[in-house]
Amino acid sequence: MNNIKYLLLRRVTQITLLFLYFGANAYGWHMLEGTFGASKLFGVIPLSDPYTTLQVLFSGFILGADVLLGALIITIFYMVVGGRAFCSWVCPINMVTDLAAWLRRKLGLDKEITNYRFIKRKARYWIMALGLIVSAVVGVAAFEVFSPITIMQRGIIFGFGAGISVIIAIFLFDLFGVKNGWCGHLCPLGATYSLIGQKSLIRVEHDHEACTGCMECKVVCPENQVLYMINKESIHVTDGECTNCGRCIDVCNDDALKFSIRSFVKKETSQSE
User: Fold this and answer.
1) What does the buried/exposed string (b/e) look like for 98-109 if buried means 16 or more CB atoms within 10 Å of the residue's CB?
2) Does the pLDDT value for residue 112 go beyond 70?
3) Model-level pTM?
4) CATH number among 3.30.70, 3.30.60, 1.10.530, 3.40.50, domain 200-261
5) What is the pLDDT of residues 241-264, one digit of tens each?
6) CA-to-CA distance for 60 and 224, rounded, in angstroms?
7) Is the per-residue pLDDT at 159 higher than 90?
8) Residue among 19, 51, 13, 50 nearest 32 (CA)
9) What residues does CATH 3.30.70 cover in the chain?
């Protein structure tokens, strides 16, 4: 079970959140009400997605203090735990894309030569900016109109309609198209949380002395460019694009990877004479 510990914890977290949202709509529970874009915890504490909030502001609407406070709370939270922890621990689409990634490996489609060629990872930052520009032009939160996160949440609560085609399209794109295509290349929320988590405190730490260079961590990592230090040096993963999913820790049989508090002080290498 140790090799899937964080995977199981993430699934429990994601399913629990969906269950609480479902209960709020079906039974009037007050633990977590709303959507992933804007919620209330225990009916009191506002929680707002920063990118959704920015879109609404760009569209010309004046937001209430509670919405702005909710966005601030979420921003500070993910600045501490790692911005893209939202992507791997909260976002329900992660369950779809993780399944596609697992099937890619099982079907032998996960070949480096076929990946990352026609869509670059930086595309998500351009899409993030484009979403804000379009929101300003058309006067509505543009990405929220077809956000797969919203579609999946509504589908689970109220039943899937035509929106299920968006979820299927993302699954097929990740399976037969680009590895980690949606989350790793296109999703503007992933771009937003990457920026938020640039200086986050909770990080994966690599121990070069324990590492045997098996590279199993890079096989399962959805953002394996962040693991450039593997078998090279003992440092934290500092790239904001790391999702803090813990899969690299799960599969590491050398105990060379673990979660720890990030150090902002560079280690000095002392030379013994």
Assistant:
1) bebbeebeeeeb
2) no
3) 0.89
4) 3.30.70
5) 999 999 999 999 999 999 999 876
6) 38
7) no
8) 19
9) 200-261
Its sign, for the CA torsion 154, 122, 225, 116, is positive
DSSP string, 31-81: SEEE-SSEEEETTTEEEE-HHHHHHHHHTTPPPPHHHHHHHHHHHHHHHHH
What distance in Å separates the CA atoms of residue 52 and residue 170, rounded to the nearest whole number? 21
Confidence of residue 110 (pLDDT cuts 50, 70, 90): confident
Tokens coding 9: 């914890």
Distance, CA of 221 to CA of 123 (rounded, Å): 19
HEC profile of 199-221: CCCEEEEECCCCCCCCCHHHHHC
Cβ neighbourhood burial of 133 (10 Å; 0-12, 13-18, 19+): exposed
